[in-house]
Amino acid sequence: MDPFLILLNSFSSSLSDSELDSLKFLCRKEISKRRLESVRSGRDLFGILLEQQLIASDKVSVLEELFKNIKREDLVSQLKQFEEEGEVNAPDDQPDAHEKRFQKAAIEVICDNVGKDWKMLVRKLDVSEVKLERIVAANPYNLREQFYQSLREWQKWKGRDAKVADLIKALRGCNMNLVADKVEKKLLQLNTETS
């Protein structure tokens, strides 16, 4: 069974009627009024969101925002836990906790500092054009999210072989030396904190 569907099912059963009404209201821009009228449970709503590719196991930002808006921080934290632990890759194909922490910090610095040339960097990391187009289509108006999801896609694809050193090498290969320096500085800072 799909762990993401199991998670959505448990979310559905924990929603009150008023919370479901609030979620339906918040989804009015994404889902037609007629379809929303047919929604009787969280499962119905999540099914539509899945169908319209607004949510997926590797794309939970919409769901997270919805739960924050109805003040269900417990569901937000379950979602974050799933995001961190429920990756598609097998656990033995994941980087160790130390490397994951460094990757997360590096990606934050990169997203904050790389501008409109982000696609050049993602291509340097060998993320396929098809994946890139899919990510852009899924997040049409949010460049930062497109970039972030592209880097996450690289992480998933590489698994254990996703190294911060590769990110730095790609940055330097794109003549983004200032950003590469900032990443190295952040990693040095993290290293000092853990020592």
Keyword list:
195 residues; mainly alpha; Death Domain, Fas; 2 domains; 12 helices; 0% strand
Classified by CATH, the class of the largest domain is: Mainly Alpha
For this structure, the quaternary state is: single chain
The CATH superfamily of the largest domain is Death Domain, Fas
- Note the overall shape: elongated
Secondary-structure element series: HHHHHHHHHHHH
Class inferred from helices and paired strands: mainly alpha
- The name CATH uses for the topology of the largest domain is Death Domain, Fas
What's the β-strand tally? Answer: 0
User: Any idea what the CATH architecture of the largest domain is?
Assistant: Orthogonal Bundle
Total domains, how many?
2
Largest sheet: none
- For the termini, the CA-CA separation is 42 Å
- Low-pLDDT regions: 87-92
Describe it for me?
The model is unreliable at 87-92 (pLDDT under 50). This protein has helices spanning 3-14, 17-26, 33-37, 42-51, 61-69, 73-85, 97-113, 118-124, 129-138, 143-158, 164-173, 177-194. It has 195 residues and is mostly helical. 70% of the residues lie in helices and 0% in strands. The longest helix has 18 residues, at 177-194. It has 2 domains: 3-85, Death Domain, Fas (Orthogonal Bundle), CATH 1.10.533.10; 92-194, Death Domain, Fas (Orthogonal Bundle), CATH 1.10.533. It is built from 12 helices and no strands.
